[in-house]
Amino acid sequence: MPLDSTYFKSAINAAAARAYQMATRFGLSHADREDLHQELLLDLLERAEQFDPDKGSAGTFTGMLSKHRASEFLYRLTKDRWRLSFCSGNEPDEGATDPLDALADTDAVLPQWGEVTNGFDELHFARDLDHALSRMDDEQRALFSLLLEHQDTPSACEASSVSSATFYRRLTDLKMHLRMFGIKAAA
């Protein structure tokens, strides 16, 4: 079956727009952005036969599909970076706790590849943290401030004005945001 030109244009637009959106929101490198763009475009073209114009527009179909595929890409990218920075093998250590649970301790925040050892690294870390903070939305920035103020997660959760489930979901989102900028918490 030949590819519909409307679907083809929608696929190109959706892949480009989603790659740009994710790159600016999460600070992806140029290489990661290109990988995401190519992966989205290929996936959208492979799934062209699943599109039914009677059920919806090509733009809606490609937009929703690109959203789901982009989140999967970011999950895999984060998982790969976590493995590189925390593990020696392919799987996380079963006995290890999540090193990002120490996020509330500002002295524990370190660059992804190890401890700050000199002024040059500290300068780059400060720049990376400033960049991550500048890319946060208001909700993430408020949570980060709350964690800095209370210095421990349970008391920050109690002080927040949201349910504990919402608080910990937002904390997970904040951790992912910081991971995307190469920042992790010390174990």
From TrEMBL:
Pfam families: Sigma70_r2. InterPro entries: RNA_pol_sigma70_r2, RNA_pol_sigma_r2. Residues 17-74 form the RNA polymerase sigma-70 region domain. This is RNA polymerase sigma-70 region 2 domain-containing protein. It comes from Candidatus Accumulibacter phosphatis.
